[in-house]
Model the fold of this input.
Amino acid sequence: MPSIQQLPPHVADLIAAGEVVERPASVVKELVENAVDAGASAVVVELRRGGMGLIRVTDNGCGIAPEELPTAFLRHATSKLRGPGDLGKIGTLGFRGEALAAISAVSRVEIQTRRRGDGTGAALRLEGGVPGKVEAAGTPEGTTILVRDLFYNTPARLKFMKKDSAETAAAAGLMQHLALSHPGISFKFLKDGAEALHTPGDGRLDSAVYAALGRDFARSLLPVKGGGEGVSVSGFITRPLQGRGSRSMQTFFVNGRFIKSQLLTAALEEGYRNQLMKGRFPGCVLAVTLPVTGVDVNVHPAKTQVKFAQEKAVFDAVYHTVLDALAERGGPVPPAPADPGKTVNPRGDFFQSMDAAAYRQREAAKPSAPPPGTPLPSWNTERTGPRLSDSVPPLREGPGRKPPFPPLRRDAPDSVLGRPPERAEPPQPAAKAPAQREAVPPPAAQTRPPVPAIPRQTAELWGQEALEPPREAPWRIAGEVLRTYIICESEEGCVWLVDKHAAHERVNFDRLKAALEPPMRQALLTPAAVELGKEDGALLLENLSLLEDFGFSCEDFGGGTVLVREVPADLDAGDVTATLEEIAGNLRSGRSPAERREALLHTMACKAAIKGGWKSGPEELRALVGKVQSGEIRYCPHGRPVAVKLTRYELEKMFKRA
Ligand code: ADP
Ligand code: MG
Done:
């Protein structure tokens, strides 16, 4: 190994700079935070080529004295901290004294500044951290910093920079957060000369939300205010019915600093418990304020994480604030999918209202009750709702039954599905002891004619089919339960339960994956303006051609809003916003183009699938069952099985017959 030597200062500086200045957006963040700390009431940020060309930040804050200008660019030089004691009570956004040093170490910087009340200002240029001479300059009160040629002297970092648009998007997201956390400051953000954000700075959070996150999102919000134990919480949360497709619209501030916090997310979401539909997330703009001594901000170089001294107090304050606001003004809770247990049973038999508990009670009261602890079959002990036997007539056929002929089977099984109440079978004591079951007359025979046997010749008339090798008869679809699972019976006497959503998702996934052409599209009658926020919006716009491949036709509507003209034909129009939000999430997390495409496949396959809880037509069920039976689909794209099988033997064991 080579000998150990202390690194020369400029190499050490470059290494340290890498921690603070990861990308153009980090430069924007540090410079804007300085402007906020300087007491500015207006901040303008300009970006050229995603910040790789130029970043200019102008503020009307307190300015820097000419003689202090070179010092500001030294490492660990700050006006915000004096001694170790101050670290425990930080009230400014900056405090590490590293940003200007780090930024100037990896770029060419120019600064012009004039203190309030001073007659003239000063200017200084630095290249790779090396300062030139401080010169007098006629400049307005406040500070302007220009950063050019970022990472020009660190080729390793330069290589990892994303496309300009991704950097612009990251900077835009950051500006959004800064603007929301400081409604009293007017923020303007220009990308390549075009205004992308402008907040009024009138001190009202709702104005900032409206300007930064868009009108639709602003309208979906409820104001909240609350707190306890030294923690106060205020801001806005989305109404339960306006849940989002991802967590991207959750914005938290602690003492004016935008942070990411699992604790706060958990507290917020706990407040919505059971009020949001599955897969939906609340959005919020929540400011948490507590004494500076109750929070440690010095846990991460980018200062986006904090530690709370009293985690429970903070959790409770957010949770109760959200809970109270929702209880008071949350509006209607989204309708739950129809509870099959509440479905009226026209037969009026006891299955209608009997749940497992009531059943056990009733049985226990009988003299012939089974000994306590006798287990009931696991599939219906816990759930309320109709018994399996409610919709499935007892098996009609003995072991020697001939398989029904395929083409004529269509109406027989399907007619059980979506059966109108009037056509219901007469009462079926299907829960009777197994020994008595065979004695029950076949109910189907009473309501519809038996399927006639097909003479062999007729089959031969159909030509080709008769010549094909004998195929397994299609499974009989006995019914659908819980509006989620299709129950089938196979020729060899097995019962199959098919998860219709999982199965359909798989079918969609395979179809999308194999498609050489974009899917069918539907043009929206009126194009939908979908507000996604600056960052998500930019991400989508950057991937327009990928979206095209999946059947979306979108364009930029400005300010983080995407105008959607066409969507895939099998996407529910009401699902467009949630789908695009989810897609933006996919795009954010996928690293390579292949990964992003795969993630999109998953989202689209899922969104276009029939959902558990929806009523499905017989043809849909038949098509899915066919694919399961042929073995074409076995697992959903997430790896869960689409069907489970119960053999006759397993059933007999459950009923203690075997
Ligand atoms: P920190 O913000 O952590 O103190 P920086 O390196 O970002 O460290 O800045 C160093 C110092 O330069 C600050 O403490 C502040 O006094 C001064 N400074 C930086 N930017 C500005 C600005 N826009 N207006 C006034 N003073 C500034
Ligand atoms: Mg700073």
Observations:
- Residues 332-360, 366-470 have pLDDT under 50 and may be disordered.
- The chain is about 35% helix and 20% strand.
- The first strand starts at residue 42 and ends at 48.
- Residues 30, 33-34, 94, 99 surround magnesium ion (ligand 2) (CB under 6 Å).
